[in-house]
Amino acid sequence: DGGITQSPKYLFRKEGQNVTLSCEQNLNHDAMYWYRQDPGQGLRLIYYSQIVNDFQKGDIAEGYSVSREKKESFPLTVTSAQKNPTAFYLCASSGQGHTGELFFGEGSRLTVL
Amino acid sequence: AQRVTQPEKLLSVFKGAPVELKCNYSYSGSPELFWYVQYSRQRLQLLLRHISRESIKGFTADLNKGETSFHLKKPFAQEEDSAMYYCALSYNNNDMRFGAGTRLTVKP
User: Fold this and answer.
1) Among residues A74, B21, B45, B100, which is most buried (max CB within 10 A)?
2) Cα(B83)–Cα(B67) distance, rounded to whole angstroms?
3) B3-107: CATH topology
4) Are the beta carbons of B49 and A101 separated by less than 8 Å?
């Protein structure tokens, strides 16, 4: 089944701990994205990557880090510096020929205890 | 800076009534605008894009550059249209920004 796979679906973390969310795609897409979804605020862009070994900050990058070592993978680390990390995180990808169409994963819900 | 504004967080209509979900954007260049939809327990997915000038599931959206709007319309709402709708703006090559979303409820 092709598409975007995010893991884990649910994650609990203690304050002060870093946590990494996985995002893998087998669509051969160049661009990948991480969004944070909060009630009433819609989707806010954290980071995006247009190509391997390159990524740009979005609107709310503080307290987050990413890497893009492989085309199919774009992991997001939520660091202890993120002041309000409890949220739903969505990963997406897009490729040439799908102008503007993002394909989304099912999301990961992070809860900080 | 907020680039996409959806003024209504909630919208409720009766089945068969017309529906319009509002979207305004701020961008000085040539925008590419989209509507995404998330049905209950499903992934967020593309509904339509302005460049295609298409009608999907009876929905249409017209880009009005003078009013910087891209409102989504359907003449006769159906119960299965109940979902969360997001307007999105693409600019600067692959940088996609979303509005806060509007939850549409179509009552029987």
Assistant:
1) A74
2) 26
3) Immunoglobulin-like (2.60.40)
4) yes
pLDDT tens-place string over residues A60-97: 999 999 999 999 999 999 998 888 899 999 999 998 65
How far does B5 lie from chain A, in Å, by closest CA?
Answer: 10
- Of the candidates B108, B88, B107, B95, the one whose C-alpha atom is nearest the C-alpha of residue B24 is B88
Q: Where are chain B's structural domains?
A: 3-107
Cis peptide before A8 (omega within 30 of 0): yes
Q: Per residue in B1-18, pLDDT tens?
A: 558 999 999 999 999 999
Interface test with A, best of B35, B98, B102 (most A CBs within 10 A): B98
